[in-house]
Request: fold
Amino acid sequence: MMNSKNKLVLTLFLLVTILSSCSEEWLEPKPLSFYAPENVYIDEAGFEALMVTMRKDIKSEFYSERGPISNEHAMSDLGVPGAQSNNVVKDFVQVLTPAGDGGSHNFPGKLFNLAYNSIRNANVMVSRIDNVNWETEEIRNRLMASAYFYRAYWYYRLVNSYGDVPFIGEEITGPKLDFFTHSRWTILDKIQEDLEWGVNWLPESAEPGALTKGAGAHLLAKIALANLDFDGAIAAASQVIDGPYELMTTRFGIHASDPSRNIFWDLHRLDNVNDPANTETILSVIDRFEDPVGAKTDGSRLPRVYNPAWWHSRNRDSSGGPGTVADGLQYDTLFRGNGNCRPTPYYLYEIWDYENDMRRSDNNWVEWYEIIYNNPGSPDFGLPINRDNFAVAIDTFQHSYSFPHYKTFVPEQDPAANPSGGNGDQYVFRLAETYLLRAEARFWKGDLAGAAIDLNTIRQRAGALPVTAGEIDIDVIFDERARELFTEEPRHGEMIRASYIMAKQGINGYTLDNFSEKNWFYDRVMRTNVFFQINLKWGQQSYNIAPHNALWPIPETVISENTLGKINQNEGYTGASQNVPPLESIQ
Reply:
């Protein structure tokens, strides 16, 4: 049941939202509304209402079939945008432009706009917090630390997708057309400083979805790592690892009594994310079917993003007819996949220890040859799908491939809905990634033995064979991140973070000066992603990527409407020739 404080917070939030969307007839001249910002942000409850909005902003990353996290995987070593429609970008060199990507993925604008909208909310709290006479310093500082966290979260995402961007650190209450680009490194310095202060004021524990010291320290470890403060990253990660968290190693949750499953199946059931027994969850987002409209999403869409469109008529049977239908047998367990992120063979097959790694065990995956013809009118009804029957071999690309069922099994709670992925909580941070962050920081410092210990902690839980210190390099670390964090991490952004680390240190010939011409992200993608290697044609486009696509373009409208300032465009995109040096300090 919702306690009285949370009811007040939700009520204030809903009233502010409703009144802010009213037509002008409700806004005729009269005394200042009770729910105007000047009257809402006057106490703890008012600011807590604003935090409900900021939690919802992070939630927007995860609950969409072409949302930011799915886009992060669909432009990486682990996947590509797999839907055939020409509205979906595949040729990043030609189609990914500042004016738009030509379709629904909206790489330039979706993350950019979401991030700055949430930064605006955080800045309201930062700017207004000292307008209140707080009963205790602890209340004020906890709220300020929360605002710093959310602002840092989004700037971390921005600088690892777009590089240099404008830093906005205060509430904007009127027209402003004089923004300037700040150096990525300047922004990292600022948000690291903010969080180093803020972590100390966050609570040790909180309700599901709320911030804690662990969440703050985990994000701080990521930021310090990006900022080449490897000691700081190790210290922050260690604070989490030594805190009230443990990797889950014993069965728990809704399917704990099913002997055919294992700990990784349990760990990735959305019902189990915030189970009190789950000691691995650091930060989550909340989405419950029983919540009211407006407080819940249309569903996780994990199956829609990562599962094949096995139900499509292109899955031909021996008669040449459609062997599968979007109904009936296996539709409620394999779901209505669409391959919006089509995983690469590198992820599906090449990085796994098949004999030992539980994450790749048969009971966690559905192999393409285990999917059956489910059309009752097909002569092959009930038999495994035979790819030799496909009209053209390329149809297997979106409609027939293996997938990690333990990551994407999300039943619908609404019996009337297409089974594309139901409601349920999801991880933002969990402890397995903390170990991988510390392993990487130790690697960059040259502590290969320490890095091996952290990697093997994760591998041991999975039953995989240990790695030796001599085997560790950045590719080995990112292979392990792929095995552990597929569907969860902002994959593209984490690769860009590592690319900047290598460029700033001059490793393997990478430099900051020619980042858009030569970077580790591009080189790794071209080593591992066969669809880009062969320029596979799917629909009207072929898969194509260039080094400058490592950074996404700043949306054209953001630059053109900023008439009194200067926002730079990333190199390789139209408009970059007019760039000026980014600001190196924040006023």
In short: Residues 122 and 147 are 5 Å apart (CA to CA).
